[in-house]
Write a structure and sequence with these properties.
The chain is mainly beta and 151 residues long. The protein has helices spanning 43-49, 144-149, and strands at residues 7-17, 22-25, 32-35, 57-62, 76-80, 95-100, 103-112, 116-120, 130-141.
């Protein structure tokens, strides 16, 4: 059976950056189980999985526009410390939830100074070419409940 719309695929993958550094892997962990066509994985990987069957192994390079999108400099802002309320000062590497005109946005604290905090709202993988090494473990038809409610 081939991976197609509304089929459930089970895959192992390793995601690396363009320098070959491993970013994440399912190896040694549970495989990824997803419903094809549901938008639950990045577009470039989903497109590469289309038509594959159990036992298939392959490598695909995923450009930013088919991965986590381009990097947007406008999502990096340096803000005065005075707008951060509470007793704890955020630390570099800490994730915060910011309220924007378009709704909430998760941001990462990237720098601190005496009077300012720099945050980045980009996905950490935005703007990066990714390489996925993939093994398809299983493919099956989704159940009516999975189609209605998701996995």
């Amino acid at each position: 059976m081939e991976i197609a719309h509304r089929r459930v695929a089970t895959v192992h993958f390793t995601l690396s950056d363009d320098a070959g550094r491993q970013l994440v892997t399912t190896r040694g962990h549970d495989p990824l189980v997803y419903m094809h066509g549901s938008g639950s994985i990045i577009v470039g990987l989903e497109a590469a999985l289309e038509g594959r069957s159990a036992g298939d192994t392959f490598t695909v390079d995923i450009p930013p526009e088919r991965g986590f999108g381009p990097r947007h400099d406008s999502l990096v802002q340096t803000l005065p410390r005075s707008i951060f309320t509470g007793s704890n000062t955020p630390a570099v590497g800490e994730k915060l939830r910011a309220q924007t005109e378009k709704g909430p946005l998760d941001v990462l604290v990237t720098a601190l100074s005496d009077d300012a905090i720099t945050v980045d709202g980009n996905n950490p993988l935005a703007g990066r070419v990714l390489r996925a090494d993939v093994e398809v473990m299983a493919v099956r038809v989704a159940t009516p409940q999975e189609i209605q409610f998701g996995l």
